[in-house]
Amino acid sequence: MTEPQGTIQLPPQLSTIAPEVDAMYYAIYWISVAFAVAIFVAMGIFLYQYRRQPGRKAKPTGHNTFLEVFWTFTPLLLLLWLFVEGFEGYVKMSVAPEDSVEIRVRGMQWNWEFEHQGGVIDDLNRMKVPVDTPVKLVMSSSDVLHSFFVPGFRVKRDVVPGMYTSLWFEATTPTPFTSETECQSDNDCGSGYHCGQPREIPNGMNADELLMGGAPPEGAPEGTREVRYCSVSVFCTEYCGAPEGITLSAFSEGGYNSNHATMMADLRVLPVEGYDRFLEVGPPPPPECAGAEDVNVCWGQSIYQGSGCIGCHGNDGVRQQPAPNWVGLWGAVRPFTDGSERVADENYIRQSVLQPQSQIVAGYAAVNMPVYRFSDRQLDAVIAYIRSLTPDE
Ligand SMILES: [Cu+2]
């Protein structure tokens, strides 16, 4: 890999802003080093030169205008320069370019959710961005104060409950999903990267090929394997609490994100085609469905449980409140509040999920179903699941 390398002090520069931020950092660093050395050396010399000696008496020296002007104005100029540079950098980092791709970021104890254009939401803590494209994040928190930090991009901003904050960056280096970027632990990835959550990949392929819509090569062994890839690290730098019963020394217990110390996300910088493809097809089915008899039915059930449909819709054929039960829905004639009717087919279910208020089932006007934004594949999965709940005649 020809990845940019980090230094002892800083992780690799993975965004357009990173070189400027680092230049500023090193300027301040070396100015501080130079002053520290000058001050300590002068102090040493004076200590020696003016040490107590027999027969020598201290006498006032008066003042030296040139010296005083010099040591007042030199630091003043330096500080002014640092202020101007710093302020320019701050403004630049605050104002996203007009043509930025926008991604919604939601922080919650202890996960990140990323909603890409068109409402494509990947699994929690997985984020994808296109390379060489300005990306603007619009961030909110549903509970406490979080802070979004990508060391490799040199960007960080608080994610505050009750308001939106934003941030932008342009990534410069794709993070490929190849065998070279497979990992077992964080040590296998350079600084600025960490070993991401496991992915289920068909044998004989890598996730790049999967993302680009490829198929496993002829003769590849059947089935899937679990792979982890080095991903750009996203951290929460706020102490956003730890769940009850979990101490910091045991933070890896109880799952990937068991407390704020591991409120980390896997960020993948994709080639533009890969990102477009991701938007088109959406996230892949959850790993637990890899071996399922019908992947879509399994995935639909996981959406039913994971996206909250279960809170309103029953799947037992009995519970009809606050929303219609899904058993027997497929193929049935649905009566609406406006007196019209329609057969529950693919298009009807699709519309019910994406625009629930466009046709209200008679008797259910009291509860508003939330609008969901799913990818086509996720919709297929929901449809397959609803369909599976109605036995064929
Ligand atoms: Cu947090």
Your description of this structure?
With 393 residues, the chain is of the alpha+beta class. Among the domains are: 18-51 and 60-94; 295-388, Cytochrome Bc1 Complex, Chain D, domain 2. It contains seven helices and 15 strands. The chain has helices at residues 18-49, 65-94, 207-211, 272-281, 295-306, 346-354, 376-388, and strands spanning 101-108, 111-116, 120-121, 126-130, 134-141, 146-150, 155-159, 165-170, 193-195, 199-202, 224-227, 230-236, 265-270, 333-335, 341-343. The strands form four sheets. Strands 4, 6, 7, 9, 12 and 13 form a six-stranded mixed beta sheet that branches. Helix 1 (18-49) runs antiparallel to helix 2. The radius of gyration is 29 Å and the shape is elongated. It starts with 17 loop residues before the first helix and ends in a 5-residue tail after the last helix.
Explain the layout of strands and helices.
Elements (H helix, E strand, L loop, with lengths): L17 H32 L15 H30 L6 E8 L2 E6 L3 E2 L4 E5 L3 E8 L4 E5 L4 E5 L5 E6 L22 E3 L3 E4 L4 H5 L12 E4 L2 E7 L28 E6 L1 H10 L13 H12 L26 E3 L5 E3 L2 H9 L21 H13 L5
Parallel strand pairs: 1-5, 4-13
Antiparallel strand pairs: 1-2, 2-3, 5-8, 6-7, 6-12, 9-12, 10-11, 12-13, 14-15
Helix pairs in contact: 1-2, 5-7, 6-7
